Amino acid sequence: MGKETWRFIDTGLQSPTFNMALDEALLDWHSEGKIPPTIRFYGWNPATLSIGYFQKVDREINMEAVKQYGLGFVRRPTGGRGVLHDHELTYSVIVSEEHPEMPKSVTEAYRVISEGILKGFHHLGMDAYFAVPRTNEEKESLKNPRSAVCFDAPSWYELVVEGRKVAGSAQTRQKGVILQHGSILLDIEEDKLFSLFKYPSERVKERMQKAFKNKAVAINEISKERITLDQAKEAFRKGFAEGLNIELEPQELTPAELDYVNKIAKERYEQDEWNFKR
Fold this sequence. Notes:
11 strands; transferase; single chain; three-stranded mixed sheet
């Protein structure tokens, strides 16, 4: 049997509202049988703070800092915590819950999809592996994350190099379709990242930022040679094809598809009611 062919889209740098609208549109089209399973690569212009679907802006986010840095701001349709999308490769995977290779459990499906990212790290010559929370304390911290910062929290099948998290992902299931998207960090500006959130005190902020260094790392901090965005794209495109055992067929968005995406962006992701509502 030949390998299954999935659609591959690289939309380059786009606005935060377009990025979230396209992920939602891909989910819609796949649920309607209009497109095959799809993998998408993208970036952000401007650099953007995205927050999880359930986060409370007034309690957790320092909007003054977001504005001072000239960052975009958008709420994702997926859960999880705040992510600063700056020096990174962002990916999304859209596939039916009924796909024969997709396990029913969220955790196991996450592991299968993340196999593509794992292989991508291997193509970059990095010794990445899946971490599984082992202690009861680690498992409890999954249920009650103390931090609003995504890369600060452990989760099942997290991708780790040298004991530190190198990719953060979130998943939602709607209309019978899995949407998983995530960040693969090339570089990270910790001071900027930590200024975007609210803390009970300056001491707590300092403690969390210090602990963060032991929990998360960007590719170029540990890579022997500096990795460019294009090199990362090539490695992870190969990684997804290999990890999911698929062929990837590059495609552009059609004018009709772009119209649909822009409509969702305008009606949902550009609205304060969506971004600030919780």
